[in-house]
UniProtKB/TrEMBL annotation:
Top-level EC class as recorded in UniProt: transferase
Coiled-coil region: none
Domain-level remarks: Consists of three domains, a large central CORE domain and two small peripheral domains, NMPbind and LID, which undergo movements during catalysis. The LID domain closes over the site of phosphoryl transfer upon ATP binding. Assembling and dissambling the active center during each catalytic cycle provides an effective means to prevent ATP hydrolysis.
Function: Catalyzes the phosphorylation of pyrimidine nucleoside monophosphates at the expense of ATP. Plays an important role in de novo pyrimidine nucleotide biosynthesis. Has preference for UMP and dUMP as phosphate acceptors, but can also use CMP, dCMP and AMP.
GO cellular component: cytoplasm; nucleus
Lineage: Eukaryota, Fungi, Dikarya, Ascomycota, Pezizomycotina
Details of cofactor binding: Binds 1 Mg(2+) ion per monomer.
Binding site for a ribonucleoside 5'-phosphate: 42, 64-66, 95-98, 102, 139, 150
Source organism: Zopfia rhizophila CBS 207.26
Segments of this protein annotated with the region NMPbind: 36-66
Name used for this protein in its record: Uridylate kinase
Amino acid sequence: WSSENVTVIFVLGGPGAGKGTQCAKLVSDYGFKHLSAGDLLREEQDRPGSEFGEMIKTYIKEGTIVPMEVTVQLLENAMKASMEKDGKNMFLIDGFPRKLDQAHAFERSVVPSKFTLFFDCPEEVMQERLLNRGKTSGRADDNAESIKKRFKTFIETSMPVVDEFEGQGKVVKVEAVKGPDEVYEDVKAKLKQRGV
Ligand code: UP5
Ligand code: MG
């Protein structure tokens, strides 16, 4: 496959900032293919016979970043599959890259991103959302202890990625505190400014 006709928008923001929620809206209005790195990792974790299952489980519970070889490969496979299946070549890559090495590896070996859609949200708001979701989500990391670790990783490891893209003029920042529909209005307006 060739990356020539591929558009990639990274979607970043803290745990519970609303990345998945906003991506779902964008999919139905713009026809993007949504690929959540976290969802792909959880699928791989549950895939019978996966050699990475136990490892992924531990990283997710601890809120740390799974070694990039695994995640980049899962994303690349999913991109290829999407293009072969329905010809979709506009991707929202949600929750990735979360570490500088992943960002560099993906942009070098797969395709450079067009820009990053960054959802900015205070920790108290994100924490409340995640604890609330934890009542029903069944996600192994939606508990107070894991959430605390996820926030720490986000600040220490993932924000440097956003800062680097910012320095390249490649960040579209959206305030994510209001309700999903209000946040989405802002997303649409900002994408329009970027010619999407
Ligand atoms: N909600 C959403 N928007 C709202 C709004 N505007 N107002 C009120 N409520 C709102 O939303 C979270 C909750 O908030 C939901 O209940 C929603 O209804 C509500 P969601 O849209 O799911 O937020 P999102 O930002 O997607 O939160 P998520 O929990 O998915 O974020 P994480 O970044 O923590 O999770 P992810 O799945 O991306 O990663 C999980 C783990 O996988 C990581 O911690 C890491 O261990 C591992 N990982 C890697 O190792 N490498 C990767 O590249 C990616 C992940
Ligand atoms: Mg998500």
